[in-house]
Amino acid sequence: MSILLINIHYSIRLALILVLTLSFSAFSFSGQIELSNALPGSFGLRKSVVSMHEQRYSNLVRQQTDFSCGAAALATVLRYGYGLRVQEEDMLDGLFAVSDIDKVREQGFSLLNIKHYLERIGMRGRGYKVETDTLLNIKIPTIVLLDLKGYKHFVVLKKTEEDFVYLADPALGNKIMPKQKFMDSWNGIVFAVIGRGFNKNSILVNPRPQLTARALNNTFAPLSNAQLLDYGFRHSDLF
């Protein structure tokens, strides 16, 4: 009996150490932990761990300069909405080709610059003036401009709920912002990227897509004008 109790206590102690180790690792690093022989009866068990930092910046393109938030936001939409293998550098090269470089370095890119670049690669960009109460109806990721204490900053608006908005911020990562705080910073315009190959189950708007054969049948169809109405764009485009 005493030997059995010792074995039980030993197993419990190992289990507690394992739980604490995994909990700490989630905050400090990412990787794969080998658990074989750590517990009685385990057979090569592996545990993938993703750090909090990686989670914050997952599924978005980070900006590398103080003026490239627009380029990174566009790269985020093209990569995770359209499946294009693009980096921020690709967007910078393309946007500089249709922009005034000195003006960009001083003020950053504009939505008009982004629109002109998209036209060069066979896609379209449309800016819409959207009322607050229609944000809930928009079902595709869009690029929006926020005024953060005087600093103009492009982010990707992934989706809107009743009291919160979900953003992919090229500088600060994925975040959830109170809707009222967003409204106080937003200029009322959303910019939609339109082209072939849009994934309606994009992780930008659906973090855990549950795909079925029926859903996949029309997943990557191009967006039509009629579908844009269905996605919440019921106002005339601005440019």
Description:
The protein is α+β, with helices and mostly antiparallel strands and 239 residues long. The chain has a domain of 142 residues: Alpha-Beta Complex (Cathepsin B, Chain A), CATH 3.90.70.10. Helices cover 37% and strands 22% of the residues. The chain contains 9 helices and 8 strands. It has a 6-stranded antiparallel sheet with strand order 3-8-4-5-6-7. α3 packs across α4.
Question: What does the overall shape look like?
Answer: globular
For the largest sheet, list the strands in their spatial order.
3-8-4-5-6-7
CATH class descriptor of the domain at 55-196: Alpha Beta
Mean pLDDT: 79
The main β sheet shows up as: 6 strands, antiparallel
Residue windows where pLDDT falls under 50 for at least 5 positions: 16-29, 208-221
As a whole number of angstroms, the C-alpha radius of gyration is 23 Å
User: What structural class should be given to the helix and strand makeup?
Assistant: alpha+beta
- CATH topology of the domain at 55-196: the name is Cathepsin B, Chain A
**Secondary structure tally, helices:** 9
Count of DSSP E strands? Answer: 8
Residues in β-strands, percent: 15-25%
Q: Please tell me the CATH architecture of the domain at 55-196 by its name.
A: Alpha-Beta Complex
For the record, what is the CATH homologous superfamily label of the domain at 55-196? Cysteine proteinases
DSSP helix fraction: 25-40%
The topology string of helices and strands comes to HEEHHHHHEEEEEHEHH
What is the terminal separation in angstroms? 80 Å
GO molecular function: ATP binding; peptidase activity
Pfam families: Peptidase_C39
GO biological process, one term: proteolysis
Domain Peptidase C39: 63-193
